[in-house]
Amino acid sequence: MNIIDEILEHNRNFVANKEYEKFQTTKFPDKRLVVLSCMDTRLEELLPKSMNLRNGDFKHVKSAGAVVSHPFGSIMRSILVAIYELNAEEVVVVGHYDCGMSAINADSIMSKMKQKGIPEETFHIIKNSGIRLDSWLRGFDCVQDSVKASVEVIKNHPLLPAHVPVHGLLIDPVTGKLDRVVNGYELADAVE
């Protein structure tokens, strides 16, 4: 049985047994937080448990490395929607130690793309359209600096209210220990 058929079979039982009832909440985050984290599988359950967040407490946005790569991309749009439409009042960027994005190599990824059948012509078309895949696919050298950079993109966004705190944290993907990188309250106080 393939993975989608397994998922759908499980889902039929999940719904029939009303297992969804324990997850019911509203679309508004009870703790008024929007959290941007990495998509690392080790964080799926560890991150909310280590932050004392439960289903319904926060809006969770994910990207590779918890990176906001473009101020008008989908990550920033999600954060703004959480603030303006879903009553979030604070933003927390959570990077993690031992992040795979620190080892990402654009040339290696493009080589793997070619191995999986992406034609060379596609790379030329993308390059001729002005997109630099080598920088778009690049990772980062220092996770602390990356968290600070994402906080800066969010905090300095022209559509983000100045009073919204934007915090930066790092989590240990083994123990769940959190370290503060940016105190968003200090930044918010500085603009008041």
Automatic annotation (TrEMBL):
SUPFAM superfamilies: beta-carbonic anhydrase, cab. SMART domains: Pro_CA. Keywords: Metal-binding, Zinc. One of its GO terms (molecular function) is carbonate dehydratase activity. Gene3D superfamilies: Carbonic anhydrase. Its cofactor is Zn(2+). Binds 1 zinc ion per subunit. Belongs to the beta-class carbonic anhydrase family. Its EC number is 4.2.1.1. Zn(2+) binds at C38, D40, H96, C99. It comes from Brevibacillus composti. The keyword Membrane does not apply. The keyword Cell membrane does not apply. It catalyses: hydrogencarbonate + H(+) = CO2 + H2O. This is carbonic anhydrase.
